[in-house]
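hi! just following up on the protien thing from before. the input was this:
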Amino acid sequence: MKIPKYFKFIASFFGVIIAIFILYISGVLGWQKYRYWQDEKIAQKAEEGIRKWQQEDYERAMADTYGGKTPQETLLMYIEAVEKGDYELASRYFIGEYQEKELRSFDGATEKGIENILNVLKKVKLIDSRAKLAEMYDEENKKHNLSESKEEYINRLYEVWDYDKKAWMDTRVDGYYFSVSFKKYPNNIWKIIEI
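and the predicted 3d structure came back as:
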């Protein structure tokens, strides 16, 4: 029995359509797989870059020995360096990325201006982070009746916000608020972030 040409044509036509569909789906899936592989490569490269930067930052921090064992000691060292006119040394008590900015801040500064700032810095006092968190708890608890205890709240936020590696000192002079923030380096040296 001979298959009519009409059926052969239809079978061939559908065969071509199916082949084109299979090629199209294979191409789409192949392209998606390629894009996924490319995105994975980019993500791995970014992750490696971040890890490298973190390692270099850690090594720089470990090598930086300018600063004290407490925020107060670092601030005192800074004040003494400025009083001696050693602005290069004073700038070294800042975290790495702010040292140059701090050194430039002395350009064009008057002796009287520097003296005024030092007088203010001598009045700043360390803020008790746990006491501040306790105050925050009391305020939040009044508004929202918190389910966690004050101690749990303080410990949770202290850990989440890395308060063991941060410190603040502040004062008010003539109605103005002045503050100094600090960061603890991995070598246990306290550095100034900002005055």
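Strands lie at 125-126, 166-173, 176-184, 190-194.
The chain has a mean pLDDT of 90.
cheers
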